[in-house]
Hints:
Shape of chain A: globular
Mean pLDDT of chain A: 95
Shape of chain B: elongated
Distance between the termini of chain B: 31 Å
Structural class of chain B: alpha+beta
Helix content of chain A: 25-40%
Radius of gyration of chain A: 26 Å
Oligomer: heterodimer
Number of helices of chain B: 7
CATH superfamily of the largest domain in chain B: Glutaredoxin
CATH superfamily of the largest domain in chain A: NADH-ubiquinone oxidoreductase 51kDa subunit
Bound molecules: flavin mononucleotide, FE2/S2 (inorganic) cluster
Number of helices of chain A: 24
Radius of gyration of chain B: 18 Å
Strand content of chain B: 5-15%
Largest sheet of chain A: 5 strands, mixed
Mean pLDDT of chain B: 91
Distance between the termini of chain A: 54 Å
Strand order of the largest sheet of chain B: 2-3-1-4-5
CATH class of the largest domain in chain A: Alpha Beta
Number of strands of chain A: 19
CATH architecture of the largest domain in chain B: 3-Layer(aba) Sandwich
Strand order of the largest sheet of chain A: 2-1-3-4-5
Low-confidence stretches of chain B: none
Largest interface: A-B, 60 and 44 residues
Amino acid sequence: MGNPGTRVQVTVGLSSCGIAAGAAAVMRAFEREFAERGVDARLKRTGCIGMCYREPIVDVEVPGLPRQTYGGVTADQVGRIVEEHIEGGKPVDEWVVRAEGRELPDEAYYSSQVRLVLRNAGVIDPESIDEYIETGGYKALERATTEMTPEAVIQEIKDAGLRGRGGAGFPSGVKWELARRQPGNEKYVIVNADEGDPGAFMDRSILEGDPHAVLEGLAIAAYAIGATEGYFYVRAEYPLAVKRLELAIADAHERGFLGDDLFGTGTSLHVQVKEGAGAFVCGEETALIASIEGERGMPRLRPPYPAAKGLWGKPTNINNVETYANVPWIIMNGAAAYAAYGTDTSKGTKVYALAGKITRGGLVEVPMGMTIREVVNDVGGGVPGEHEFKAVQLGGPSGGCLPAELIDTPVDYESLTKTGAIMGSGGMVVMDDTTCMVDIARFFLKFTQDESCGKCTFCRIGTKRMLEILERICAGEGREGDVERLEELGKSIVTSSLCGLGQSAPNPVLTTILYFRDEYDAHIKEKRCPAHACRPLLTYGIDPENCTGCALCVKVCPVGAISGDRKEVHVIDQDVCTKCDACRQVCRFDAVTVR
Amino acid sequence: MERVAVRDEGTDDHVEVVDEVAREYAGRRGALIPLLQKVQSRIGYLSIDAMERIAERAGVPAAQVFGVATFYSQFRLAPVGRHIVKVCHGTACHVQGALAITEAITNELGVEGEGTTADGEFTIESVACLGCCSLAPVIMVDEDTFGRLTPDEARKIVKNYGD
Ligand SMILES: Cc1cc2nc3c(=O)[nH]c(=O)nc-3n(C[C@H](O)[C@H](O)[C@H](O)COP(=O)(O)O)c2cc1C
Ligand code: FES
């Protein structure tokens, strides 16, 4: 988008991650500069632009000039941007990361993306319903309620091939139909915004960047099903998302997009936000419903499915944030246009949160069926530095780790399930040669063990036994037969747990055993951690050849384990050393060795 | 995580807080969790006095209130420090060295692992993902989030809050 207007526009990305990187201070600096210099400019807030690795991000549009995006902006840089670019008409090229008409490296981040769900994120002000309406917002709801029957809406969603983005990939149109067919007038729609996968932030970014899109999708679903009440169940750690959502609901209500008699059709919908209270299992739909009802979030046996007997025992449709965000686009552009993206069985696009050992970490949206290589390397720029790509973790605690050999696997529901991982909700954590796969398995098991609600014996006690074994292996006390015991326990937990938490908890362990058996063997047989991550298996030393006696390590050692006078070779007291790695990180002469 | 409730001195006024908050939620279905959240945000934690009063107001056994409070990790059963430091131990932060961040902070504040410092200034908690994973490792002090940290930076940030 160029700037056809006559007024300078400066847009600052103010999502949680932007703010964490200092965007609020940058915003204030622009306000100050504009006031002091008397610059007439529109200073605008937007949500997550996606390039989290460049936060804080500022877009500058000066009439008559190509639009420029600055990355990694600090408050100190603002003065120069205003003076040289906005007043002087000359962009500060060295800070620009993206510019219209110029081919900069960051362009690769965008060139293969297709932004349907993220169409407005990082573009509009998420706190302005007018900006959403200007982009065609709420037209889909109007079309659905005034021009389409509920059955036609459901058919459109089915034809589009939309499948649930919360992990399991169930066809959304079919689910809506099940709820529609239930007798009774009291029905509910719920948005699952619990986003429990630790390492994923798609839903947060969508809610912070374009809350009305999710709200509109929810309203369309409510119309299709015949529900009159809706709930957002949002993770406790997402205060900004809650704030923007509540504002969006109030504004939509005021404009008549929510409430009674929408568009004069007699349809009504009232929506409220429920904040989660910190329990991973509450992302599971029946536990989530129990939690909204004010109880402990314990999963219930299915069937009956929520479509038949959900919230307060009434028919309920529950979908993920991203699933709903697709809906307005499908209604406006048609099922065929949507189904043109993706593969035979996985249609449309998917949003991924790229994090971990990756050069360009952030939020990306690509057509289904792209390979992991394309997402990680082409879009994400691969692993930074000298390091080697080792694995990518998909699907969080319910998912698995895929090794480098499988990097050409397409990301669609079926292909991923075949590898032992799952699509999950879209978190992708990239790992390199410094990541220990046994430690990662232990990490996830610790998580699920903590989060198991305790209802099923195998999930409650089985995960505990698995964790004990993994902790032992990481501590250098692994025994012959441990891997087999893990496999046996894992398989029993999968088959004897009631809900998806237990059924998938062993996945991270089983996939790492399958693809990284050599690392387990190194820990158990040789008492060695190849990635140098499991501390009890490491010994820190100082190479007398390289040590110059600069005493830098002596200073940073938090436990005083290093001794030696200046200009003399230092020594590490093994009894005191906690293997925190601080000395190796500060040493400028490569003198600290790790075995 | 195991949590034990303690009967503190001087928590009588918690009953008043509960009464005030409970009026807001009167007659609403499924209000127990929001009620606990609101009470905790006012008092900082859930004391036994507060939970018993909530049970009375909601007309449910105290055991049910206690059961819900202990199920969710957000609820605290003991008073907290003036500042709350949440260290993210989600997947991305774990891979990017969250352990060293926790160590730097606990070292700086002179506590063992999680918990509250002796002077009542800080409570250190570990959380599973603050949703800023591409800025890992991440911490949150009160309402502010900080990313792309080194252990040394984390130490300095926390220190600044102490003064
Ligand atoms: C342990 C567990 C955690 C889950 N967490 C989430 C979550 O955080 N977000 C989500 O949308 N779905 C989650 N799900 C899946 C939900 O149960 C449900 O399938 C989903 O919300 C349906 O929406 P969809 O069809 O749009 O994907 C979880 C499932 C399990 C078993
Ligand atoms: S893993 Fe730490 S913010 Fe997500």
